[in-house]
Amino acid sequence: MAKGRHSRLPARKSSSTMILTVLLMFTFVILILLALGILSIPSNSGDPSRKANDLSTIVHNKVDRIEGDDGKREQWVEVISWEPRAFIYHNFLSEEECDYLISLAKPHMQKSTVVDSETGKSKDSRVRTSSGTFLPRGRDKKIREIEKRIADFTFIPVEQGEGLQVLHYEVGQKYEPHFDYFMDEFNTKNGGQRIATVLMYLSDVEEGGETVFPSAKGNYSAVPWWNELSECGKGGLSVKPKMGDALLFWSMKPDASVDPSSLHGGCPVIKGNKWSATKWIRVNEYKV
Ligand SMILES: *[C@@H]1O[C@H](CO)[C@@H](O)[C@H](O)[C@H]1NC(C)=O
User: Fold this and answer.
1) For residues 239 and 225, what is the distance between their CA atoms, to the nearest angstrom?
2) Domain assignment present for 25
3) Is 222 in the pocket of ligand 1 (CB under 6 A)?
4) Which of 113, 122, 162, 225 is deepest in the core (most CB within 10 A)?
5) Rounded to two decimals, what is the model's pTM?
6) Does 170 fall in a domain?
7) 218 C-alpha to ligand 1 centroid (Å)
8) Where is the chain membrane-spanning (predicted)?
9) What is the pLDDT along the chain (288 residues), one digit of tens a residue?
10) Hey, whose CA ends up nearest to atom 2 of ligand 1?
């Protein structure tokens, strides 16, 4: 017994020394990280004139900037609005990827339909005059790469996405303002409600074809591109289609209720052609 107690004492002493050493080293590492700017201490030094919970500003600032290397176009994420929560990821797709999606879809384009809110079935409609087709999830390597990138951008797993829908709008074609979330039981059986939408522009549009949010809160005439917008585009917060850009907006708020400020439409194309690809994302796994 006595022998045991003797041998235990120095052991306890050395283990407490070790804990101290580890703590000191940890503190040292944290200090180095802080000094190098890898870690930062959160501060509340935002705009003091902005009230907490006031989301009504059209934000429009660049939050992250990644310098493009090897000749790739610069990629950055821009917050354009908090009500609805909407973000533009610039140069999300390469030109090759845009052309690839168009070439896959082109032979299969059909007149677009809308969801009948009473039956939940698809129906023809005058509010949506584009043509489109679905590309199944995980169809090939290129599509899987794009779908992985969407999952990284949205923080929502690939499995919660529907297939990509490629859409084509010719001059005069449009999609009247609508919600992406469902009001019926039928469409939410697989995957539940739609939580977010990633809309990728596969072509530039010379005039018109903006994605417009007519119910966006804030002074949407303050966007820098205001003078380039069509009459329809001036009816709300508008995003001009630009090849490769991806628009992410949320149909649901963080409290899981649907967000009516996510009302959005596709303005009529005035000049040129509009190609886009849409990824609708559900709250649960979407089985294909
Ligand atoms: C909205 O923004 C525009 C452009 O910055 C400005 O001229 C206008 O006065 C603003 N309107 C309001 C109501 O703040």
Assistant:
1) 9
2) no
3) yes
4) 162
5) 0.77
6) yes
7) 10
8) 20-41
9) 444 445 555 556 678 899 999 999 999 998 888 888 777 665 554 454 555 556 666 666 655 555 555 557 889 999 999 999 999 999 999 999 999 999 999 999 988 777 776 677 777 677 787 889 999 999 999 999 999 999 999 999 999 999 999 999 999 999 999 999 999 889 999 999 999 999 999 999 999 999 999 999 999 999 999 999 999 999 999 999 999 999 999 999 999 999 999 999 999 999 999 999 999 999 999 998
10) 222
Q: Show the domain range for 168.
A: 76-282
Domain count, the chain: 1
Instruction: Determine, yes or no, domain membership for 244.
Output: yes
What is d(CA 51, CA 70) in angstroms, rounded to the nearest whole number?
A: 43
Ligand 1 proximity of 221 Cβ (cutoff 6 Å):
yes
Quote the CA–CA distance of 75 and 86 in Å, as a whole number.
17
By alpha-carbon position, which residue is closest to atom 12 of ligand 1?
219
Distance 70 CA to ligand 1 centre (A): 40
Helix/strand/coil percentages in the chain, nearest 5? 30, 30, 45
In-domain check, residue 181: yes
* Dist CA 210 CA 240 (whole Å): 5
